[in-house]
Amino acid sequence: MAVAMNMNWKEDQEVIEIIKRIKEPFKMTNRAFKAEDTCVTVDGRSIGNGHFGIIAGPCSVESRSQIVDVAKAIELSGANFLRGGAFKPRTSPYDFQGLRSEGLALLRAAKKATGLPIVTEVMAVKTLEDHADDIDIIQIGARNMQNFDLLKAAGQLRKPVLLKRGMSATIEEFLMAAEYILSEGNDQVILCERGIRTFEKYTRNTLDLSAIPVIKRYSHLPIIIDPSHATGDSRYVESMALAAVAAGADGLMIEVHNNPETALSDGKQSLTPVQFNAVMEKVTQLAKIMGKTVG
Amino acid sequence: MAVAMNMNWKEDQEVIEIIKRIKEPFKMTNRAFKAEDTCVTVDGRSIGNGHFGIIAGPCSVESRSQIVDVAKAIELSGANFLRGGAFKPRTSPYDFQGLRSEGLALLRAAKKATGLPIVTEVMAVKTLEDHADDIDIIQIGARNMQNFDLLKAAGQLRKPVLLKRGMSATIEEFLMAAEYILSEGNDQVILCERGIRTFEKYTRNTLDLSAIPVIKRYSHLPIIIDPSHATGDSRYVESMALAAVAAGADGLMIEVHNNPETALSDGKQSLTPVQFNAVMEKVTQLAKIMGKTVG
Amino acid sequence: MAVAMNMNWKEDQEVIEIIKRIKEPFKMTNRAFKAEDTCVTVDGRSIGNGHFGIIAGPCSVESRSQIVDVAKAIELSGANFLRGGAFKPRTSPYDFQGLRSEGLALLRAAKKATGLPIVTEVMAVKTLEDHADDIDIIQIGARNMQNFDLLKAAGQLRKPVLLKRGMSATIEEFLMAAEYILSEGNDQVILCERGIRTFEKYTRNTLDLSAIPVIKRYSHLPIIIDPSHATGDSRYVESMALAAVAAGADGLMIEVHNNPETALSDGKQSLTPVQFNAVMEKVTQLAKIMGKTVG
Amino acid sequence: MAVAMNMNWKEDQEVIEIIKRIKEPFKMTNRAFKAEDTCVTVDGRSIGNGHFGIIAGPCSVESRSQIVDVAKAIELSGANFLRGGAFKPRTSPYDFQGLRSEGLALLRAAKKATGLPIVTEVMAVKTLEDHADDIDIIQIGARNMQNFDLLKAAGQLRKPVLLKRGMSATIEEFLMAAEYILSEGNDQVILCERGIRTFEKYTRNTLDLSAIPVIKRYSHLPIIIDPSHATGDSRYVESMALAAVAAGADGLMIEVHNNPETALSDGKQSLTPVQFNAVMEKVTQLAKIMGKTVG
After folding, report:
1. Which of B232, B254, C181, C228 sits at 20 to 30 Å (Cα–Cα) from B71?
2. Cβ neighbours, 10 Å, residue C286
C-alpha cells in the first residue's frame, strides 16, 4: 500500500490502520491521528499546546554588532527565539543573497550572548547536510513549501522545522507539505502563516488569520503568524499580532531591526527594538488572557 | 473642476481646497480631510470613535416568531442592532428571494419588541424610495458595492449606510465607493469587511483583517467585521470575532438563527442564540480591554 | 415549485420537466435545455451559431464628431456593431460620468450615419425604463453582473442583452446571472468575458480564454471576448483578439478611439482606426478559417 | 556593483553598461539586452525565433511499452520532443513519486526508438548532478520556479532549460527566475506558461495567454504553452492549443497517454494519441498561417 511504502515505521500496523481511516489526504498531520496539541520544545522554550512562542530578529544577518544587538534587545523584551536570515531567497539574482556560513557563525555568537535558540531559513538539501547542526529550528520558506526533496531531507532530521505556507498554497496543500516531513519520521513541525497572494495592493500579502481556527480543527501542529511579511508594513504589525493572539495562534514571528532604514532587506516592515518592546507588552498581556503561557 | 461639480456643498471653498491637496483619490472619506474618528449613532446606540457596535440576527427574515425570538435573544446577550434580510441577493433566480415588504414589517415588529434598530440590505434605488423610512441602517451588499446609482441614492438620504466590501474590491475601491455616498452629502457611513475571494477553499472567503489597520490609517470611517459571511462556517466565527476586536475593529456583524439547520439561507454559518451568547461574553470582555465602550 | 414561480411561461409543463432534470444550477442557460447554439440578431447582423460579430467603438461617447468619425471608420473596417458609453461606471465620483442622454442622442446620430446598431451600457433600472428604446443591445457591465434587479428588468425586455462577466465571478455565477435574464423570458443574451481579477500586474486583468470552451460545453449562449478591458493595453489587443477567434469565440468587443491620447477614459487600451483596420484583416481571415461567417 | 558580482563574464565591461541602463529588474532576459528572438535547438529541432516546437508525452513514465508507444505515436503526429516525468512532484507523499532513474532509462529507450529529444523535470540539485547527461531539456516545474539553488545549478549547465511559471508568480517574477539561469551563463531557456491560480473552479488553473504578448514585448526568450496542466481537462486542450498558436506562442507542451483512464497521474487532462493527432493537424495548419516553421 502506498502509505506504508513511504513510512519509516512500517512495523506499526495499528498506526497504518488509523491512517487508512482518516478521510483527509493528510494523515499523520491530522488531529484524527493525534488528538492532543503538539508542543515543540528547544532548550526549554516551547511553542504549542498552551505555550506561546515569540520569534524575532532581522530579515537578514548583516554584521556581528547588528545581530548581537538585536538579539539582546528582543531577549529583554521577552522573545524566546532569534530569527535571522543567512541564506536569503531573493527574487533577483543581483540582490543581497545573505552572508551564508558567515551569517550562521554570527547567529551562533548572538545565541552565545543571549541564550536564544536560532531559527534560520535553509533553501537547499546541501545546506542542511553542511549546517543543520548549527541551527536550532530549520525554517523552510514559502517559496520552498513544495520543494519536496528539501521537505524529505528535513523530515529525516531530528530537530524542529518551521514550515511557512506557500504564497498561493491552500491550507490542504500546506498540511500535505507538513505531511512530507512527518511521514519521514520528524513530528517536530511548526506551521507559519505569512500571508497569501491576492489582488489587494495596500498590503504586500493578505494575512489569512482564518487559517488559525481551520488548522486548529484539522491538525495537532502548532500554528504561528508572521505579521511582518504578511503586511509588509511595520505600521500594521501590532494590529495583526494582537489579532493573531486573539484568534488562537501559538506564536508570532516578527521582524526587528536596530536600524530599519538601512536594512539590506525588508526594512519597511521591520520594527525597531523600542516598537517591538511596546508590541510585546500588549501581546504578552493578551496571550495570558487567552490562557497561554508566554516564554 | 471635477470635484466641485459633484459636491452638493460647493459653497464651501475651504473644503474644496483641502480636498485638492489630498493625494489619495478618496477625499471626504480620507483621514486627511477629517482627523477625528466618525461615530454613527442611531437611537442612542453608536458605532465608531471608541464605541463598539454589535449587529446580529438571521441571514433572512423568515417568520414573525423567528425574527422576534432571535431579536429578543441577541438583545439579552448585548447586541445593539438587529440584522435580517428582507430583500435577498441570491446567485440563483430559483432560490428564496426574501419576504420583501412583508419582511420589513416583521423587522418593525421585532424592533417594537426589543428596541433594537434595524439593519437590512437594499438592492435597488426603487426600494430605497419606497422603504427607506422603515429601515434604521441601510445595508449595501458586497455585490452592489459598485452599483453607483444605488450609492448615489443612499448618499442623498440622511440616515446611516452600512457598506460592505465587494468580494474582489481593493481597499482603495472600497473607500472610493464610500466616497460616492459622502460626496452626495451623507457622512453616516459604516464600512464592513466580509471576506475577499481567493483560491482558498476551506473557508468561503478569506477574511482580510489587515483591512482594519489600513482603513484606520487612511480613513475616519468606522470599520466593522462580518466573520459569518467571511468564513461561511459557524465553527470559525468566535475566533475571527475575537481577532477583529483585537485588530481594532469598531464592531461586528454576526449571523444568529434560532434553528440554523432549517434556515432558508446560510444556516451553516449561523450561530445559535446560546453560541452567540458565549461569543458575546468573550467579545465584550476583549473590547473593554481594547479600550472600547460596548453597547 | 421554485422554478415555476419564476418563469413567465409556466404554461409549459414539459419545459419544467426538462429543467428539473438538469443537474447544474443554471437551467434555461444550459445546453442540456437547448442543444443548438443561440444566435442573436439585430438589423440582420448576427452573433452566435456560426456568426462572428464585431462590436467596436470608444469607451465613452465624447462628442458628435468623435462618435460619428469612429463609427464610419470601424464600419469601413468591417465591424457590425457600434459601442460607446453614455452612462459610465467610474470608480471615482469625481471622474467623467458620461454624457448620459445626450450621449445616447449622439449614438443615434452615429447609427444614422452608418447603419451600425448600438451597444451601450445601462447601470440602472430607471435608465432602462427611460431609454431602452434608443438602444439596440443593452450592455450590463462587470460591476453589475449581480445587480439582480437590473438583470430581472433586462429579462423583461424583448431586446438583446450583452452581459459582461464580473471581475471575480466564477463561470457558474456568470451563467447564473444570465439565468436571471432568461428566466424572465428574454433569451437574447450574449455573454462577454473581459478579464478576471488576479495578482498579475503587467495586464489590467487576466483574460480567461478558457472560459470559451467551458461555456461552449455548458451553455448554448454566444460568448464574445473584450481584449481591450482585459489587457488594458492596446499593444496586447491583436494577440488576444486572434487567440479568442482561435479558441472558438463568437465575437469580439474592441475599443477604438480616433485620438486615444486625448480620450476621456481608457485611452491607453484603445486602438486607433488604422490599428483596428489591421487587426480586423487578420481577425476576419482567421474567423473564416475557423468556419465562421463574419458580418 | 551587485550585478557584476553575480556575473560569470565580468570581463565584458560593455555588457555591464547595457545592463545598468535597463530599467526593468530583469536584465539579460530583457529584449533591451538582446533584440533578436532566442532560438533553442536540440538535435536540429528548434523552439523560438520562428520555429514552433511541440513537446508531447505522458505526465509520468510508467513502463517501457507505455513510453515507447506514446513516443512513436506522437512522433508520427509531428511532435518534436518527448516529455515524460521520472521524478514527480506530488502534493501527497503517499502518491506515486515516479520511476526515478529507471524512468530516465525508459525515456532513453523511447528516444532511441524515435529520435525524439527528452524533456523531463528535475526537482533537486543532486538529480542534476547525477542525471543531467541523460536529459536533453531540463524541466524546472512550477513549484520550483523560485528554488534559487536549483535555478543556479541549471544555469551552470550548458544545456536547455524549460522553466515553468509558478502558479502564483507574476510575469516579472517569472522573468527574474529566468534571469537566475541566464546570469550563471546559460541562455538556452524556454519559458512555459501553464496556468495561474485563481478563484475559478471549472478549470484547474486559469491559463494566462496574455503572458505571450507581454513576454514577447519584454523578453527575447521563447514562450510555450501547456494547455493540459492549465485546464486540467482534455476537452479544453484543443481550444487552448489553437488560441496559444494564434496569440503568438513559440510552442506547446501537451500531455498524451495511450490509456488516459489508467494513467498513474493526470489522466483526466491527457489526450489519446488519436485525439492528439487531430489537434496536431489543426495546430500545424494554424502555426503555418501565423508564419511559423513547425518541426
Report:
1. B232
2. 23
Give CATH superfamily name and number for B50-88+98-294. Aldolase class I (3.20.20.70)
Distance between CA atoms of B199 and D48, rounded to whole angstroms?
A: 33
When pLDDT is cut at 50, 70 and 90, the band that residue C274 belongs to is very high
Strands (E), B171-258: 189-193, 223-225, 251-255
Does the domain at residues C40-294 carry the CATH identifier 3.90.1150.10?
no
Residues belonging to chain C with any Cβ–Cβ distance to chain D shorter than 8 Å = 168, 170-172, 196, 198-203, 206-210, 212-214, 216-217, 230-231, 235-236, 238-240, 242-248, 286, 289
Measure in Å the smallest separation between the Cα of C233 and chain A Cα atoms.
19
Determine the residue type at A135.
Answer: I
**Test mutation, C199, C202, C205, C206, chain A, max A CBs within 10 A:** C199
Q: Which CATH homologous superfamily contains domain D27-294?
A: Aldolase class I (3.20.20.70)
**Helix runs in chain C, H state only:** 2-6, 13-21, 64-77, 101-114, 125-131, 148-155, 171-182, 211-218, 227-231, 237-247, 273-289
Q: Which cell numbers in the block locate residue A75? A: 531577549
pLDDT digits (tens, 9 = 90+) for C141-178: 999 999 999 999 999 999 999 999 999 999 999 999 99
pLDDT in tens, chain B (295 residues): 334 444 444 456 778 888 888 999 999 999 999 999 999 999 999 999 999 999 999 999 999 999 999 999 999 999 999 999 999 999 999 999 999 999 999 999 999 999 999 999 999 999 999 999 999 999 999 999 999 999 999 999 999 999 999 999 999 999 999 999 999 999 999 999 999 999 999 999 999 999 999 999 999 999 999 999 999 999 999 999 999 999 999 999 999 999 998 888 878 999 999 999 999 999 999 999 999 999 7
CA–CA gap between residue D249 and residue D152 (Å, rounded):
26
Bridge partner residues of D161 (DSSP): D138, D189
Q: Are A40 and A160 in contact (CB under 8 A)?
A: yes
What are the domain boundaries of chain C?
40-294
Residue for grid cell 533578436:
D36
D chain contacts of residue C170, beta-carbon cutoff 8 Å = 199-202
Report the gap between the CA of C199 and the closest CA in chain A (Å).
Answer: 5
What is the distance between the alpha carbons of residues B89 and C176, in angstroms, rounded to a whole number? Answer: 12
- Identify which of D143, D145, D168 has the alpha carbon closest to the alpha carbon of residue D89: D143
Taking CA–CA distances from C95, the nearest residue in chain B reads B2
Residue closest to C3 by CA, chosen among C142, C139, C180: C180
Q: Give the residue on D whose Cα is nearest the Cα of C172.
A: D202
Q: Which residues contact B5 (CB under 8 A, 6 or more apart)?
A: none
Positions in chain A whose pLDDT score sits under 70: 1-12
Candidates 2.40.50.100, 3.30.360.10, 3.40.50.1970, 3.20.20.70; CATH matching A50-88+97-288: 3.20.20.70
